[in-house]
TrEMBL record:
Domain N-acetyltransferase: from-to ranges: 6-91
Alphabetized InterPro entries for the sequence: Acyl_CoA_acyltransferase, Gcn5-rel_NAT, GNAT_YJDJ
The organism's taxonomic lineage, starting at the top: Bacteria, Pseudomonadati, Pseudomonadota, Alphaproteobacteria, Rhodospirillales
A Pfam family this chain is assigned to: Acetyltransf_CG
Record-given protein name: N-acetyltransferase
Keywords: Transferase
Keyword Transferase attached: yes
Length: 92
């Protein structure tokens, strides 16, 4: 089960709060497509799986909203490649 993420539409990013810090994924919506341009975790959370949990939440959100995903960010692209259960969400 994925952790709840929030959609900060003002900043155009999905966010996951972990231990008082925020892991985020910048995005741009283009019709039925969600372009993920950048994923960032604070240095103290790197290697903890926090960014992966965020990505799981982003993909769950995309699926529930019927969106296709374009992972512009190399981290997001690699994460999706490693999690084949989300391959059907890739645009194109």
């Amino acid at each position: 089960m994925s952790e709840p993420i929030s959609d900060n539409r003002v900043k155009s990013r999905f966010e996951l709060a972990v231990d008082g810090q925020t892991v985020f994924a910048d995005y741009r919506r283009n019709g039925g497509t969600l372009l993920i341009s950048y994923v960032e975790a604070p240095p103290s959370l790197r290697g903890t799986g926090a960014a992966g949990r965020l990505m799981e939440g982003v993909m769950t959100r995309a699926r529930s909203e019927g969106l296709k995903v374009v992972p512009v960010c190399s981290y997001a692209a690699l994460w999706i490649q490693r999690h084949k259960q989300h391959a059907d969400l890739l645009a194109g």
